[in-house]
Write a structure and sequence with these properties.
The chain is mostly beta strands and 162 residues long. The chain has one helix at 4-21; strands at residues 28-33, 39-43, 51-58, 64-72, 75-84, 90-94, 98-102, 107-111, 118-124, 127-133, 150-152. 11% of the residues lie in helices and 43% in strands.
């Protein structure tokens, strides 16, 4: 069974991917009601991200991550991220393998190898999220659909608490 953290991370990634797929220029945020009575996500205000982060943790179910990320005013300075999906395998991402292609409304990096792998970073009030999309080639076969984003505390740079 996935831990609460893993489910929350998967939900955050799903929301970002839905926004990217829909061609939105803003990321979904807290829900808000509209005049027609429907509840729609409110956009997350673009924030300039400056962060020196290190997250290393292991979940009870064997999921673990080791991530270092340094960002200066929306520019990725360094990135090293490994994640493991229990004993099934994992994924690895290194700054040198990517080119930064976007700074706002979220940071985006694309793999230099033409595979279409993207890394995305965005900040909400309580966390900075580093997520991936289309990066199956950077993972052990069969684990990509269970690979979660990593979330950092924007104040301390440590792993964010849900």
């Amino acid at each position: 069974m996935k831990s609460l953290r893993s489910r929350a991370a998967a939900a955050a990634l799903a929301a970002l991917l839905a926004a990217v797929a829909a061609g939105c220029s803003v990321l979904p945020g807290p829900a808000s009601s509209t005049r027609d009575g429907l509840v729609r996500p409110a956009p997350i205000a673009a924030r300039v991200i400056t962060l020196d982060a290190h997250c290393e943790q292991t979940e009870a179910d064997g999921y673990r991550e080791l991530a270092r990320l340094r960002i200066d005013r929306d520019v990725i300075q360094s990135l090293s991220w490994e994640l493991w999906v229990g004993k099934s395998g994992g994924c690895r991402f290194e700054r040198g393998d990517f080119e930064q292609t976007q700074r706002t409304p979220h940071i985006e990096m694309r793999a230099r190898d033409g595979t279409g792998c993207k890394l995305m970073v965005w900040q909400e009030p309580r966390r900075v999220t580093l997520a991936h999309a289309g990066c199956e080639a950077r993972c052990t076969p069969g684990v990509y659909d269970r690979a979660w984003p990593v979330m950092f505390d924007p104040g301390s740079g440590s792993c964010a608490r849900n």
